[in-house]
Amino acid sequence: MEKHIQTIELINDYLNERLSEVEIQIFKNRLKADASFNKEFEDHVLFLEGMKRQQLKADVKKGKQVYIKYKWFKYFGFTSVIVVLVAIVFMHKNSKDAKIEKTNPVEIEVKDSEPFLDLTTPKDSSNEILLIDTSKVEKVLQKEEVVEKENIKPQTEITEVKIPEKIPETITINVAIDSTIICNEGTKLIIKANSFVDDNNQIVTGNIDLKVMEYYKLSDMLLANLSTQSDGQFLETGGMLFIEAKQNDKKLLLNENTLIEIIFPTKKKNMQMFSGNWDGGNINWNLQKETALVDEIELVEIVEEEIDVPFAVIEEVPVYPGCENLSRNNTRNCTSERISQFVMRNFNTQMVNDIGLRGKQRINVIFKIDKNGHVVDIRSRSSELESEIEANRVIALLPKMKPGKQRGRAVNVPFSLPIIFQADGSASVGRSLIDRRNRDSIFINRVESKLSSNDNKNVSVAEVNSYVLRTSKLGWINCDRFINTKDKLRYTVRIEDAQGDIRVNMVFKSWNSVLPSRRSGKVFDFKMVPENEEVILIAIKKDKGKIFLDVVETTTEENPQVEFNFKEVDLEGLKVELKKLNKLF
Amino acid sequence: MNDKKILELFKQGQREKAFSKLYGLYPKIEALILSKGGQKQDASDVFQEALIILNRNLEKSDFKLTSSFYTYIYSVSRFIWKDTQKKFSKQELHNLNENEVEHFHSVLEEKKYQLAENAFLELGKRCQELLRLFYHKAMSFKDIANVMQFKSEKIAKNQKYKCLTKAKDIYQTSKTVQS
Description:
The structure holds two protein chains of two kinds.
Chain A: H1 2-15, H2 21-33, H3 35-94, H4 103-120, H5 127-156, E1 169-174, E2 179-182, E3 188-191, E4 196-197, E5 207-215, H6 218-223, E6 229-230, E7 233-247, E8 250-251, E9 253-254, E10 260-264, E11 272-279, E12 282-287, E13 293-298, H7 328-346, H8 349-354, E14 360-369, E15 375-381, H9 385-396, E16 405-406, E17 409-410, E18 413-422, E19 427-429, H10 433-461, E20 464-471, E21 475-483, E22 488-494, E23 501-508, E24 514-516, E25 518-520, E26 523-530, E27 534-543, E28 546-555, E29 567-569, H11 571-579
Antiparallel strand pairs in A: 1-5, 2-3, 3-10, 4-9, 5-7, 6-7, 7-8, 7-21, 10-20, 11-12, 11-21, 13-20, 14-15, 14-18, 16-17, 18-19, 22-26, 23-24, 23-27, 25-26, 27-28, 28-29
Helix pairs in contact in A: 2-3, 3-4, 3-5
Chain B: H1 3-11, H2 15-22, H3 26-35, H4 40-59, H5 69-85, H6 90-95, H7 98-122, H8 125-136, H9 141-147, H10 153-178
């Protein structure tokens, strides 16, 4: 023990750089030469690193607290600005009223903000307090948004012609029982009993009306002015839905923790559920976090990849004839022993003696027991070609076995077998199982990941037929996936005769995305779009009670030269023209 | 606050400050983890782990940060999360570029240290305290004997050795159990 303590001390001195140069050199040499010392050293370093995690964690925690404090101070500054803004708007609105009233709202606002002021005083404010604050900040933020929206609305409603929205399908269901609804365009809704609540969070009984609009066709999406974007990121859509539930013309909500299962008839892969919010004339989709993809229904399952799982780690080892009906471990040992015995019995040591070998000989043999139980892929390495040939001959004689299985699937099982013998005739085969298991265990992770990836592969090869997703919200719902694009550029188009209400949307030929533009004057800005994509620009103009349309095919590039020639169309004509685009999706 | 300044903070040993700056990246990582089906607590754990890995690598003399902190932490976080979920597809492992392979290795390496940390945490309070004083506070055995009321320097020393051996034993058993 005393010696061990000294070793540890030496290692500590080395790590703390308290050794002289000569000593360091000796230390390093010893690391190279002395395996057990090396192991001791590595273990010690490992442990110290593990301990260090404690320190690091503490530092990370402190860093986090500093960050939150800092962020909160920023919020506070921001909040006060907003409170002042709200106050000003309020004052402005009331300015037409009597002047005396004007002061009151300001006072109210100030009162509202008092809790924030109070909370700043304790210096080491804990996380909890901070959290409460941010929620309040958010509320104030929302207030501000409401005010803004009110200001915007009157501007957007100048339009004289209204393009009618899709005629919704209305379905009456009885909420007392589970219902399955198949809509016109193939969407299937599975609704559990008692899923709906009213304003007061009371569970609704009796019959309710479900209003469903389905948007699978590009024309439908364009007419409804739907686009596929999530906070500036592109989405590829597998179909959008609008669902509303009403009873006696009163809007209903989904009960908390209740989900509606929706089956989308789309063939796209890796879809997720999004819910949409209208913001300034365009819809923005947000991933529904609490819901996960339930199932991808597959048409066919194909492709079984060839997988190797080493003998030492496989769940069900290959079974040598005569080793059946034993426990797992015993089967392993039995098979292993029988193979060794077989080789020992059949290996012709005489042949090796004949070629004049002397002393200890070693042949490393690797082979596989394939999915059908046959021995294949025999490879041997030794100093003498003759020994290799003899080893190959013997291994090839091994009988057919029951194949090994991993996760219930027959797989190839590599088996390595060193044959060691004294060239005077006695042969010994095999080595301890533990030894092999140690070495092979490094494979297990790789094998497992390979296996799990194989499952994935099946999914990607098989064609996905439809999607089962769950939603926790009614309203606008989209079955989408994110699209990552590279090489983006800023894309804007200019329209000269820009009087009236104009909307320009961009549709991508290579995937199902609709991108809206934002108008400022005569310029329509699509923000960042991927470069060199074939797209179709669809411009719809509404002016003085008439509808105009133009569709331009182009490729995204810097400074695009796109000219629109608006042609007057009636509502029917518009629909016909847009329907021509449906083949894109 | 740009990357250079943060790097400078690390070099000056102002780890806390550097971490607090890096926390600006947290919302993005949280969004990543949430989008992969994790909870907020998971995101916080993953981010902490990513910072630890980053710090560990920065301390290596041969380590060069080839990308921005954001890219690095994002990539490492992704691996950490995937590793906890055990979701590596073969295609992914094949398509890793050099940097990613390195990140992946860091994550796997860190797992060993986690085991060692757990071994440390399984020790008794007194053992933990003793080792902490010796290794983190770099106190001499004489001072430790004083603070922790050991009868002599020698006893403190022996005690420390016993604690260390015990921790290593725990580590070894936990390692074998895992594999």
